[in-house]
């Protein structure tokens, strides 16, 4: 008789048996529901012998790093190290405009930073780190088995396969038999905050693929502020759970506007909001006109450097969810 509550018990004893009484485990957390639920399970199972690492890559959303730190340590009691590698990532992204290059740089830099941090961890037990935690879900398992075709290479998704090879770690994947809604149910039972449990997915390359063209700190700031306003208004309107994913992208073009009696010549924000069940196909979300009006006026008035706001009315296919 399979229930969430006994899934937790079974999984915890399975983890304890697998890891044994002394070995140490490391794992990356992103602030998303999968890695948080996985980290919480490990922390219940083996306490301080689980080491969570969060890497700030400089292209996270507004307040992200602070929120993750507070929620995971104070809220969930997870043994967490936050690494601020913003300058390293942004330095390597300088001058790069190609979306796939951005993905590769961020993926590779992530592995370097993670490995460097892992080497600094000195377990109290004196044991080596032997395992790597991954929040892989059932659909990811299926996809990696069945998709060998071109659909898999439309966009290179971030993965940490390199870590396993370089560090000779064994993998722990406590969520590998679960679907997203089951992970969310688990999150609720384990008292992970609602906001985190119901959070929209956020891509590994972060705002770097939502700042079209070159990623500079100034551009990231514009995209970050605009995104924050859009999401804030979506939550206020009670629409967050109806929408599968929403964000603001900063376009690499300038457009003429007028503020007071001044002519302006500044950048353009594209808002994107979609409904989907599997992210393979998606429909754009139909907002009330008054909602879009409010968001556009807030963004132009509150975010320096934006002269115009547009709403993306393209479905997937032919468009992808992200702009890059
Ligand atoms: P696309 O743009 O491919 O997005 O229609 C489908 C879903 O995947 C997310 N996405 C990514 N996630 N690394 C990730 O971890 C990536 O490089 C990446 N590219 C897209 C996207 O946010 C959406 O949820």
UniProtKB/TrEMBL annotation:
Gene Ontology molecular function: ATP binding; GMP synthase activity
The UniProt record lists the GMPS ATP-PPase domain at 2-199
**Keywords attached to this entry:** ATP-binding, Glutamine amidotransferase, GMP biosynthesis, Ligase, Nucleotide-binding, Purine biosynthesis
List GO terms (cellular component aspect): cytosol
Protein EC: 6.3.5.2
Catalytic reactions on record: XMP + L-glutamine + ATP + H2O = GMP + L-glutamate + AMP + diphosphate + 2 H(+)
In which broad location class does this protein mainly occur, judging by the first location in its UniProt entry?
Answer: cytoplasm
Its UniProt pathway annotation is: Purine metabolism; GMP biosynthesis; GMP from XMP (L-Gln route): step 1/1
Q: Where in the cell is it found?
A: Cytoplasm, Cytosol
- Identify the residues that bind ATP: 30-36
The first-level EC class reads ligase
Q: What does this protein do?
A: Catalyzes the conversion of xanthine monophosphate (XMP) to GMP in the presence of glutamine and ATP through an adenyl-XMP intermediate.
Q: How does it assemble?
A: Homodimer.
Name of the protein this chain belongs to? GMP synthase [glutamine-hydrolyzing]
Query: Source taxonomy lineage?
Result: Eukaryota, Fungi, Dikarya, Ascomycota, Saccharomycotina
Q: Which residues of the full protein are shown?
A: 203 to 526 of 526
